[in-house]
Protein 1
Amino acid sequence: MRSRKAMSKLSVVIPALNEERSIAQVIERLLAIRPQLQAAGVHEMEILVVDDGSSDGTAQAVVPLSARARQMGISVQLFPHGYNLGYGAALQTGFLHAQGDILAFLDADSTYPPEELPRLCQACLMWGVDMVIGSRMCGGPSQMPAIRRLGNLLFAQLVSLLTGQQVSDCASGMRVLRVSTWKQLQQPQPLPTGLEFTPAMTVRALYKHLHVHEVTISYSERVGRSKLKVVRDGIRFLKAIMSETRTQRPRRLQQVAVRGMVLPTLDLTATLLGIACWQHGPWPARLLLGILGALTAVLLVRWTLPVQPRRQLVTMPQPAAIRAVEQVALDKRSE
């Protein structure tokens, strides 16, 4: 276990693109959790907003909060991009200017709750974790659209298959990591500049055997229109995951591909025969082929999954100090 004093300054990076309706609320919520962060071991905080070429009043919404934050001893800085460079590029700009010992990031659209940040910081500061991922996929309250939830589930299963370590949310946009971890993740080449930044970061961290844990968080419906394009960005996610695997573990991709050749072929054959029999054959044959196809699909998953033990999801408990601070705040509101 590491000392809290070894890492006490937190740099929170918020990438923003046309988020004038929500960015101020996110910053205000971050300012409000300062006591909880202090209870978790964070004694100093700065907030870095990277405006990634917004065409609305995102930048103007940030400026008034700087003076208020300054009175609290918190720095709120704005770093504008002249034009849109991408989600990953915005995060890299923020990390470049960060002065903290630990880094955090979350979206500017109010989907990720800043109130969960103390728990992620606790895991990093007190439990020696290199990177903490806020998982939206392991039982917390979620308003994620069904199609995106399915996509996240499939990508998490793919990453678990390739890396041999159980992951529930490889694309989460709320994380806490050490500065030393970030430097390692930028090698041998920088991470992608687009939305595929997060899955690539997860895969690279696992291949580098960094200490990665997940903490359950809630997820809300965003304010305004989503910038995620399911098909286009899904393809980019897949390319990023495969690219990291080819670079970091080329033999791993070959092993999974070879081991997965026979059963997918049998599964496809059984499926095609089942369709043909379903249309023209007797019901016993249809039932038999249906069972065969289902069993082959199960065997496909079981056989292609890695045989080595996989790191399981760890949910970090909320520290008593944070609970006490939150109770005091609730008591004051009720007075």
Protein 2
Amino acid sequence: MAGFGAITITAVTTAKRAMDLTGKNMIYNFHIYQFSILRFCLRILMTPIFADNFKGGGFGGLAGHSPVFDGSHAAILPVPYDGAVSYKSGAREGPGAIIEASCHVELYDTQWNVDNERLGLTLLNEVEPDVCGPEETIAKVETVYEATLDKTGFVLMLGGDHSLTTAPVRSLARRFEKTLTVVQIDAHTDLRDKYQGSPFSHACVMRRVIELAPIVQIGVRSISKVESDFIKTSGHRVYPAWDVAGQTDWIEPMVDALTENVYITFDLDGFDPSVAPGVGTPEPGGLSWGDAINIIHAIGSKRKIVGADVMELRP
């Protein structure tokens, strides 16, 4: 993109990457652990994923569901809900499929010398959707998320349709007030005020989120006229896929403008369909694996990733 200098990410030596596991306090640079957990989850998507093979094992092949947080530095929160989708259902199968596939991916991160197994992962029980509808389900997830934050420092939510993202953002916005920004990687802006009569459709999630915290949208390539008009009035930053895919010079100034604390919401249709075909509303011309990792790494290098979600897998 014209006008920006090339991004520079200082190389981190193996010694700096290494973590001190001998004491009670974890020492890590640039919040590498949160980055590594999120990248591990995205790596899972590169393995064959099926909707019918979840046998209830633990995340990453570790122990099964457990409410025990002692020694865990991250919690995995699966929410099998797709009651707010506007097209094909099936995202409710996503969390179980990701957890099952995670058993076939190495937990050790060779690039950052992070042993995710030793650092501890707590897999929570699935949050059962509320039969009353999306608003009630979001409130239920918010309650669980809030309680989880009190026990562990980082929660990765697995969806499920994108409407659920409102829940963790509500919780984190209360904690971090003016210092939270939500970075959305997505093919769609999801900025309608209502869709099919509901303000809690997955097509409205970022409209609800922007009421709570500033947002940045990356990888967009499908947008309605109504949403386009809203963007002009809101003034938030949108980075269309056709401007940023395969490019890096825009990343550093994007990160520099973020607040101290960042929540990353990753709708998997942000990827190009050649990378992640199993989504409900795919769009051509999306981000590559390298694009996504460069973005997340750059954010984690300069800001604190306080939470994240991976949404809309339709196995």
